[in-house]
Amino acid sequence: MNRFSALVKREVKTSQKDLFTYGLVIVLLLFVSETLRSVYARYAGVSFPAESYNEMFPSFLLLGGFIMSSLIFSEDMFGKDTQHDWLMLPATNLEKFLSKALLMIVAYPIVLIVLFFLTSVVTEPIQLIIFGNPMAMFNPFRNGNFGFLLAQYWVWTSVFLLGGTYFRKAHFIKTVLAIGIISLVLGALGLLFARIVFAIRFGSSLQVFDAMFYLSPVNLNRALSPLKVFSVIGQIFYYVVLPIFCLVTAYFRVEEVQATDAV
């Protein structure tokens, strides 16, 4: 446990300058956004708009988290000057992998929530005193989709962690391109599957989109009812199987690189 804690501290320490800059950018953007909204509302004579924290949080959670996840392995796994040092660390490959993966999957959302909340604690009293803007602290549970947002983050962070370990350069861009290609292939397979199902239910002479156009909502729901079981299976695959598969594959990719490139 002490060894794993030392690995986590190493990860934070080696990236503390970049993390500080990233956090400062978030704080400044939030403060400037709230200030500009308050200035406009005050001098335009309109009501004060809703706070911007909940609007900006998903972007920093998802986009920021995905970019960081795709880059977190780059230096230690593929850097010519650093990969040997990472290899020689007195820790197992699993510990090395988890020290990075857990930082992105668990620590990053928690730290981001705390940062947004503390920024609102500082910003809102200033806006109230100067512009009379009603105080509205950051509350991630306000919109009711926080659980869904975290679930999406869990799934796609695992994908970008796999991309970060698999690709040697341009990790984020190549991962996005790979996701696009795979999505097109799966979409084509989905259309083919739907065509087969509708052909079985309505005959091969009726096209899929024609059937959906002419059917009433009741009949359409009845026709699609056999697919509900596939929907449940798809959700299990999406939220459980896919992220676990990506993380396990990423770990074995770390094993491979540690056994070959860094020797």
TrEMBL record:
The chain crosses the membrane at residues 20-40, 60-79, 100-123, 143-164, 176-200, 236-254. Keywords: Membrane, Transmembrane, Transmembrane helix. The keyword Transmembrane applies. This is Uncharacterized protein.
